[in-house]
Amino acid sequence: MIFQGAKFCSHCGARVERAEIEEAKSEPCPRCGVGMTATVLGSTTVRECPKCAGLWVDTATLERICAERERQAAVLGLASPAIGSGGALEDRIQYLPCPVCRKLMNRVNFAHYSNVVVDVCKEHGTWFDRDELRRVIEFIRGGGLDEARTRELSDLKERERRLSAAQTAAAWSSNCADEESSLNRHQGISLLAGGLIDLFR
């Protein structure tokens, strides 16, 4: 966050390059329904709601932001006018419609471990309530994605270990059942043979 009207970030020195552009089509904000404005941050275009300061980022743009530090710096330099908080949004959980297809989006904890819950339309993009994109970028810059990958790999290995143990236990149980069945069959044959011998005496 920087002071409104500042040309450079006081923390990292990045130049603030933010401009609004006119577009023929204005998608509605999924949170409050107001038409969003296209905003250019460096070389990245996002949609911003002038009322709640939420951001709509399409899928390809979000992938580039996550991958490129220059784009991250531009987003961190985003200065929005201060607005009344109106209460914590998380206290009023609701599923929001995608501004493109109007289908309800999924609520997802970004990277499973960031503690930033965002609204995602897999086909069209991600909705970030006010300040959420900044928190996501700080999570990424703090090594969050690497940590998330490490945790996911660890979880995958643990699931594979449990599956292997379950398969081994099932195979052992099946072998024991086969051996018991074979033993019962041999005992049955022995009893039958003994009975026939007694019969012919």
Topology of this structure?
Layout: E1 18-21, E2 37-41, E3 44-48, E4 55-58, H1 59-67, H2 69-76, E5 106-109, E6 117-121, E7 125-128, H3 132-141, H4 144-199
Antiparallel strand pairs: 1-2, 2-3, 3-4, 4-7, 5-6, 6-7
Helix pairs in contact: 1-2, 2-3
Question: Can you offer a commentary on this structure?
Answer:
With 201 residues, the protein is α+β, with helices and mostly antiparallel strands. It has a domain at 18-142. It is built from four helices and seven strands; from the N terminus they run ββββααβββαα. A hairpin with a 3-residue loop joins β6 and β7. It is elongated and about 110 Å long. It starts with 17 loop residues before the first strand and ends with a helix.
Oligomeric assembly: single chain
What topology, given as strand order, has the largest sheet?
A: 1-2-3-4-7-6-5
SSE order, one letter for each helix or strand:
EEEEHHEEEHH
| Poorly predicted runs of 5 or more residues | 79-89
Form type: elongated
Number of strands: 7
What is the radius of gyration computed over CA atoms, rounded to a whole number of angstroms? Answer: 30 Å
From the N-terminal CA to the C-terminal CA, the straight-line distance is 103 Å
How many DSSP helices? 4
Major pleated sheet: 7 strands, antiparallel
Mean pLDDT rating: 78
Q: Kindly name the structural category.
A: alpha+beta
Strand content: 15-25%
- Give the % helix: 40-55%
